[in-house]
Amino acid sequence: TSRISELSQQLSQQARMAELAKAQSERSSSTMWQLEAQLAQAEHAAQRSSELEAQLAQAEKDAQRASHLNAQLAHTQRSDEHALQLKQCLARAEGRAEQTSEELEAALKRAEVGEGRSQDLETELASMRMAMVEAMRQTD
Question: Which 3 state secondary structure label does DSSP give 1?
Answer without folding.
Answer: coil
